[in-house]
């Protein structure tokens, strides 16, 4: 079984990325047989930038994404969205791949369930 989580919002400002990654991490913890895939769209592509510094006690999206990847999760970021936000050529977190809408479409078709945040 695999679950696709699509994130559309920036890493901070709302809690959509935070809640999406909480869901991904809990799926991996409680249902290790489930393959978790995360696709970053729109402002969510900035979730994949390294060196995020947040106040003490505040959630950190970079750490959360790294946790998902370290447990075997797959994370891709929309290339068009990344280019539109000036991220082309910038390093992303290790394990995050620049991708395409075609790949996201393939993931949707292959997913047993898709969640959007």
Short description:
This protein is of the alpha/beta class and 117 residues long. It is built from four helices and five strands.
Could you explain the architecture of this structure?
With 117 residues, the chain is α/β, with parallel strands linked by helices. The protein has helices at 16-30, 61-70, 79-84, 101-110, and strands spanning 2-7, 35-40, 74-78, 96-99, 113-116. The chain has a single domain (2-116), classed as Hypothetical Protein Ychn, Chain: A (3-Layer(aba) Sandwich). Helix content is 35%, strand content 21%. A 5-stranded parallel beta sheet has the order 4-3-2-1-5, sandwiched between helices. Helix 1 (16-30) runs parallel beside helix 2 (61-70). It starts with a strand and ends with a strand. The model has no long low-confidence stretch (mean pLDDT 97).
What keyword list fits this structure?
alpha/beta; 117 residues; Hypothetical Protein Ychn, Chain: A; 5-stranded parallel beta sheet; 21% strand
């Amino acid at each position: 079984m695999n679950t696709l989580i699509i994130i559309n919002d920036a890493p901070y400002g709302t809690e959509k990325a935070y809640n999406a990654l909480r869901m991904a991490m809990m799926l991996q913890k409680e249902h290790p047989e489930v393959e978790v895939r995360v696709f970053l769209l729109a402002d969510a592509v900035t979730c994949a930038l390294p060196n995020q510094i947040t106040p003490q006690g505040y959630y950190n999206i970079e750490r959360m994404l790294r946790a998902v990847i370290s447990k075997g999760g797959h994370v891709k970021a929309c290339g068009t969205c990344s280019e539109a936000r000036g991220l082309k050529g910038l390093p992303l977190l290790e394990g995050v791949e620049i991708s395409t809408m075609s790949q996201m479409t393939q993931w949707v078709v292959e997913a047993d369930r898709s969640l959007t945040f």
